[in-house]
Amino acid sequence: MKNIEVYMGNIAVTKVEDNLVASGIGSCLVITLYDPKHKIGALAHTMLYARRLSFEVRSSKDERRKTNPESPDTKYADTAIDEMLKRIETLGAKRENIEAKLIGGANMFSAFESDFGKENVSRAKEKLKKEGIVIVGECVGGSQGRSVEFSVTTGIVTVKTKF
Amino acid sequence: MLKISKKNLLAKITNEATKDASLALLKLCGEKITVEFVDVEVEKIQKALSGIDLESMVAGVYLPITGDIKGASILIFPEKIAYTLCDLLVRRKPGTTRKLTELDKSALKEVGNIICGSLLTVFSNHLKIKIIENLPELSFDMFGAVIDQIIIQFVQKAEEVLLIELRFGFEHIRIKGHIILIFGHEEIKAIIEGLFKENEIRG
User: Fold this and answer.
1) What are phi and psi of A79, to 5 degrees?
2) Shortest Cα distance from A95 to chain B (angstroms)?
């Protein structure tokens, strides 16, 4: 069994006995999807909730995407959820079995005009509802950082804080 | 990646600022705290921060910047520096701070103000532009958590940051900290080009 670290803006999908890990989450939102029957899991470490809010973003990833429009941008919750569903269903997960958990969405600095964390959580919930995915657990909001370890063997998501 | 000539110039300017910051901290603490320049680089946000343990505890002082240019500066202190500074600033026995009180947080914000302020003043003087620092905010938590909201805020406008690595020297210990300056891509370019041009004129 190995730990796979999922960095900001990325997703990971697996059906082997791995742990999917995301460390030091503040206002980012981690979304886990799990089919307990087939033991297939996915984790997204998302930053924003929808692509249309950040049309100005120009990263090298976006440049690659211009030449490959099929490549989704997984830093956004909506496209990350679509991509995770596509990949875990390809691995054999069934939509009716899939459960979601949400972790993160904190507000670490109150000076920011926008509370991205809160928005991320509410928009991800809307998207999951639209896709017919049940949310079975959440540890969101507040003003503290979290680290996440998702065991694809058991489906257990462990959330650690430093306080 | 910065060209050597521009890197040397930024190093020279940052050195100027760290000397001012060291002097101001001496006045504030009554003890010698050296702030030394280690390295400077312009990098993509994620790459700039990739070498730092996401779960390590840090104190992050966030200072929004307005004026002729808009952006933010963030001073990241590792936990050990934060506690050592609090021992000195709040006049505790060395090695006794284990938890940050409101007074400690306020003291750390002041240190952030001094260090980032020194740097921004030097930039402002060289470029002859108005840079206004707004009220500092502090978050004491895991590095990844402290930094992600800032990245999210600015990833919409900036893909690169100016990362300055500093070394804090106390009587017995020397520990690295970081200043991260985030501006829009065009603004970073303008700052560096502006500093370079001004330096060439000075000769």
Assistant:
1) -75, -30
2) 31
Give the pLDDT score at B97: 92
Q: Rounded to whole angstroms, how far apart are CA atoms A21 and A17?
A: 13
Tokens 């990739």 found at: B50
Model confidence, pTM:
0.85
Q: Which tokens hold the place of A82?
A: 């679509």
Task: Determine the Cα–Cα distance for residues A48 and A65; give it in Å rounded to an integer.
Answer: 18
How far apart (Å, rounded) are the C-alpha atoms in residues A27 and B141?
A: 12
What pLDDT score does A65 carry?
Answer: 44
Quick check: B145 and A58 CB within 8 A?
A: no
Q: Give the DSSP H or E segment for B75.
A: strand B71-78
Question: In this structure, what DSSP letter does residue A39 have?
Answer: T
Decide if B37 contacts B166 (C-beta within 8 A): yes
Phi, psi of A81 (to 5 degrees): -65, -45
* Average pLDDT value for residue range A59-78: 59
Active site residue A28: yes
Q: What is the pLDDT of residue A37?
A: 96
**Overall number of domains in chain A:** 1
Provide the angle, in degrees to the nearest 10, between the axes of the packed helices B79-89 and B4-29.
40
Residues 69-128 of A with CB under 8 A from B: 75, 106-112, 114, 116-117
Separation in Å, CA A127 to CA A69, A81, B79 = 22, 8, 38
| Residues in chain A within 8 Å Cβ distance of B159 | 57-59
Report helix, strand or coil for B55: coil
The whole domain housing A83 covers 3-162
pLDDT value at position B182? 74
pLDDT band per the 50, 70, 90 thresholds, residue B1? low
> Which amino acid makes up residue B115?
I
- Closest CA of chain B from A112, distance in Å: 8
The pair phi, psi for residue A143, each rounded to 5°, is -135, 35
- Assigned token pair, B156: 């919409």
Residue located via tokens 């926008």? A114
Q: What is the ipTM metric for this complex? A: 0.85
Point out which residues pair with B43 in neighbouring strands: B161
Q: What is the CATH number of the domain that holds A110?
A: 3.30.1330.200
